[in-house]
């Protein structure tokens, strides 16, 4: 018997006899036993082996009957477990010769995969590949350019995680001639696997395979350059010596056009190509040379080969499998609803602008009034959380369109909020120093990173579960995106640049950490990019990770504000008295410190309350003398008839 086994997954839209003919040709070319896998729609979620050694009867399924007929009409095949009698099918007349000829036979088995849905089929198929140690697995479909999103996704996952070689055959017909093979030459593991498959098919048919290299028209040396590249590719894939292979270089600026020319010149055989991320690996139907070639008339039989997944992919499959068993995965309807909701709510339009404007006004007034309740109300109105979710979703799925939409909304929202906060501070009478609510947002700490990360996790998870959408208002309060921006704008109106930068830093911490947490959550619940990650998304993710790491390091090592100030700066008392003039006498300056920083309680004596001009001058003088944010409280003790010193 053969040393290895190959599998054939029967496609639902191709005649079983045609698929079995293709599978037998592959099995004979590679000298592999054959395992036929048939999907049966069922909720059982298991795989059942069907006996082929018994004579066809009423209880035997139609597929089993066809497989049995194929065995009986193929001299080199036998049913698994029936090897002793199979030699007679090969034309033997002496039963004593069975044992001598039995090792040349290929055994055939049939299993039914009883499950429901493309995902379950893919999972059960991977189980069978590993359990039976399949060396390759093939399937046939009529149309390469499918638009079924679930089928495309599961096919990509199968390609990513399969430990064995996968061969997809499209456009099989009864007239397909497997003896004439055209292989498109290219670089990469999959292209090398395609060349080896073409050679094996040609050797089995005692024929030759045509290796084609399509080279762009770069000048008079285009054909020679293509021949040199093709020779290098063949030597790498097949070794220094190879037979049954013909060279063919086609000069054409379109690869699929050159392949069609070679196929037509080879009397319409089959075309074998290596899988590429712009072909069968793509999530967008119709892309890639294979898809374009398959659109032609007449349509060729296209065979796409994918080499076994590397160890890293298989390790990733184990990790994702463990996560999927632990965390409920988002289904297709909820996935579509989430993407639609996030994309529509991340657009910079009048609605987004209005909510940003109103939430910032509410937040600014609440900060000026030192009212935590009003600030919380502003958090509930603010729309910034959705575009941050959009950024996380765009990065984890590699969606540049959604990334641009979301980033534009965040940047425009940030600009509007700072401007509104600045104008509110300028137009508010009597607003001349930061309040406690503002100062509380001007000195971010390391714990703010953990709060933002937890908020991002909660926001993304609640968004992926329709039953948890009621939790989003609480997440918005925890994230607190607009109040730091409003604080920055208010601080700019006061000229307190240190506080403005500190509040803006808090927003940046919240933003980058929430986006990172959103990516983690969406990946865990099943929103993942199947194909190769794009360069821009990898760059953006790297920048995001570095930003979070840098912020964490900065917040860990930044100097801590001292709990008290031992003495006042020199000449501060004299400078204050000078600013007070002759109408007021400086009585005392007391230093106080709380969780918000330093506060000076300045007490003056005069015949009337100190005017606003004097208060502003004292505040400006004090801020000039200290290196840390300082609040100034000026108390006037009114004494009738007092004479200043």
What can you see in these coordinates?
This protein is an alpha/beta fold. It has four domains: 1-140, Rossmann fold (3-Layer(aba) Sandwich); 142-326, HUPs (Rossmann fold); 331-557, Glycerol uptake facilitator protein (Up-down Bundle), CATH 1.20.1080; 572-638, Alpha-Beta Plaits. It is built from 24 helices and 15 strands. Strands 1, 2, 3, 4, 5, 6, 7, 8, 9, 10, 11 and 12 form a twelve-stranded mixed beta sheet that branches. A three-stranded mixed beta sheet has the order 13-14-15, covered by helices on one side. Strand 11, helix 10 and strand 12 form a beta-alpha-beta unit. Helix 15 packs across helix 21 (497-524), helix 16 (400-427) packs across helix 20 and helix 20 runs antiparallel to helix 21 (497-524). The termini are far apart. Residues 87-93, 98-102, 281-285 and 561-566 have low confidence and may be disordered.
| CATH class placement of the largest domain | Mainly Alpha
3D shape: elongated
What percent of the residues sit in helical stretches (DSSP H or I)? Answer: 40-55%
- What proportion of the residues form beta strands (DSSP E)? 15-25%
The CATH architecture of the largest domain is: Up-down Bundle
| Alpha-carbon distance between the two ends | 115 Å
* Main β-sheet description: 12 strands, mixed
Please report the number of helical segments. 24
Query: What structural class do helix, strand and pairing data support?
Result: alpha/beta
Please, how many domains? 4
Which fold name corresponds to the CATH topology of the largest domain?
Glycerol uptake facilitator protein
Number of strands: 15
Mean pLDDT across all amino acids: 79
Poorly predicted ranges (pLDDT <50, ≥5 residues)? 87-93, 98-102, 281-285, 561-566
The value of Rg in angstroms is 37 Å
């Amino acid at each position: 018997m053969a040393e290895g086994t190959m599998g054939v997954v029967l496609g639902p839209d191709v005649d079983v006899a045609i698929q079995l003919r293709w599978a037998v040709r592959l099995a004979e070319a590679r000298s592999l036993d054959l395992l036929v896998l048939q999907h049966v729609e069922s909720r059982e979620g298991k795989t059942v082996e069907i006996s082929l050694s018994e004579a066809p009867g009423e209880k035997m399924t139609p597929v089993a009957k066809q497989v049995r007929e194929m065995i009986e009409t193929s001299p080199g095949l036998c049913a698994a477990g029936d090897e002793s009698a199979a030699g007679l099918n090969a034309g033997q007349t002496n039963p004593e010769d069975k044992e001598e000829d039995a090792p040349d036979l290929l055994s055939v088995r049939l299993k039914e995969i009883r499950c429901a849905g493309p995902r379950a089929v893919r999972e059960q198929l991977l189980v069978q590949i590993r359990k039976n140690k399949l060396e390759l697995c093939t399937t046939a479909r009529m149309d390469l350019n499918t638009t079924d999103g679930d089928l495309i996704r599961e096919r990509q996952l199968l390609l990513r995680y399969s430990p064995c070689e996968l061969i997809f055959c499209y456009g099989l017909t009864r007239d397909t001639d497997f003896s004439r093979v055209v292989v498109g030459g290219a670089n990469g593991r999959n292209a090398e696997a395609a060349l080896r498959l073409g050679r094996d098919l040609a050797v089995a048919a005692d024929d030759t395979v045509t290796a084609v290299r399509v080279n762009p028209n770069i000048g008079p040396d285009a054909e020679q350059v293509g021949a040199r590249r093709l020779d290098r590719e063949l030597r790498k894939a097949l070794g220094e010596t190879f037979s049954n292979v013909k060279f063919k270089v086609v000069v054409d600026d379109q690869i699929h056009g050159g392949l069609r020319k070679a196929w037509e010149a080879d009397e319409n055989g089959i075309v074998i190509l290596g899988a590429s991320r712009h072909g069968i690996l793509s999530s967008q139907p119709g892309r890639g040379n294979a898809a374009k070639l398959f659109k032609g008339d007449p349509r060729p039989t296209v065979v796409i080969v994918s080499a076994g997944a590397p160890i890293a992919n298989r390790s990733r499959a184990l990790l994702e499998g463990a996560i999927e068993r632990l965390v409920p995965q988002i289904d297709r309807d909820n996935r579509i609803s989430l993407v639609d909701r996030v994309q529509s709510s991340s657009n910079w339009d009048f609605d987004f602008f209005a909510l940003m404007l109103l939430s910032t006004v509410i937040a600014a007034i609440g900060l000026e009034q030192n009212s935590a309740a009003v600030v919380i109300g502003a958090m509930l109105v603010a729309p910034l959380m959705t575009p941050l979710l959009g950024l996380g979703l765009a990065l984890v799925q590699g969606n540049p369109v959604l990334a641009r939409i979301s980033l534009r909304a965040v940047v425009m929202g940030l600009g509007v909020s700072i401007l509104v906060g600045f104008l509110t501070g300028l137009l508010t009478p009597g607003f001349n120093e930061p309040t406690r609510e503002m100062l509380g947002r001007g000195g971010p700490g390391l714990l703010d990173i953990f709060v933002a990360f937890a908020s991002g996790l909660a926001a993304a998870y609640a968004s992926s579960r329709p039953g948890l959408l009621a939790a989003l208002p609480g997440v918005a309060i925890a994230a607190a995106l607009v109040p730091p921006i409003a604080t920055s704008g208010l601080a700019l109106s006061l000229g307190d640049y240190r506080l403005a930068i500190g509040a803006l830093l808090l927003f940046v911490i919240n933003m980058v950490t929430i986006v990172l947490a959103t990516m983690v959550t969406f990946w865990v619940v099943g929103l993942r990019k199947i194909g190769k990650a794009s360069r821009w998304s990898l760059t953006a993710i790297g920048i995001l990770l570095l930003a979070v790491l840098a912020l964490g390091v900065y917040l860990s090592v930044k100097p801590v504000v001292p709990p008290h100030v031992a003495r006042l700066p020199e000449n501060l008392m004299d400078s204050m008295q000078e600013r007070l003039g002759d109408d007021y006498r400086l009585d005392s300056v007391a230093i106080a410190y709380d969780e918000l920083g330093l506060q000076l309680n300045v007490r003056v004596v005069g015949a009337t309350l100190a005017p606003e001009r004097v208060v502003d001058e004292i505040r400006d003088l004090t801020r000039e003398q200290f290196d840390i944010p300082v609040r100034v409280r000026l108390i006037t003790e009114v004494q009738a008839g007092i004479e200043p010193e």
